[in-house]
């Protein structure tokens, strides 16, 4: 009788562990995005990575407002957007809505291309900690 009870308890424990691991695997993207937002994206504080500087006026969860992204020769500004952390690529994918993009010629600063967009998506890779 005791052996049967031990087997039942062991099997139950293994099932609970399997369910917990499955839940962690399914929810890891959501949890990582929330964690990345709390660590990385803070309103009014510039974030520098992958050769870009990202500045956000307001952050509400993964929703962004007043977004400015710039690099040496490029600038994007958007009224709103959101982001998703991609753990497999160690990157953040931004979806920007209702904005303007400018691309400056590095040799002739007065020459630049400007376009407006309803929506644009781009991904910035986070630098590894090994560097």
Keywords summarizing the entry:
single chain; 1 helix; 47% strand; elongated
Instruction: List the helices and strands in order.
Output: HEEEEEE
Give the overall average pLDDT: 79
- Count the E strands: 6
| Domain module count | 1
Estimated share of beta-strand residues = over 45%
The CA-CA distance between the termini, in Å, is: 59 Å
- Based on Cα principal axes, name the global outline: elongated
> Low-confidence spans: pLDDT under 50, at least 5 residues?
31-38
Contiguous helical run count: 1
Bin the helical content: 25-40%
Which structural class best describes the helix and strand composition?
Answer: alpha+beta
Specify the biggest β-sheet: 6 strands, antiparallel
Q: Record the strand order, biggest sheet.
A: 1-2-3-4-5-6
- Over the alpha carbons, how many angstroms does the gyration radius reach? 22 Å
SSE blueprint:
Layout: H1 2-39, E1 47-49, E2 52-60, E3 63-70, E4 74-86, E5 91-104, E6 112-125
Antiparallel strand pairs: 1-2, 2-3, 3-4, 4-5, 5-6
Question: What's a concise summary of this model?
Answer:
With 131 residues, the chain is α+β, with helices and mostly antiparallel strands.
Structural notes for this entry:
The chain is an alpha+beta fold and 131 residues long. Helix content is 29%, strand content 47%. It contains one helix and six strands. The chain has one helix at residues 2-39, and strands spanning 47-49, 52-60, 63-70, 74-86, 91-104, 112-125. The protein has a six-stranded antiparallel beta sheet. A hairpin with a 4-residue loop joins strand 4 (74-86) and strand 5 (91-104).
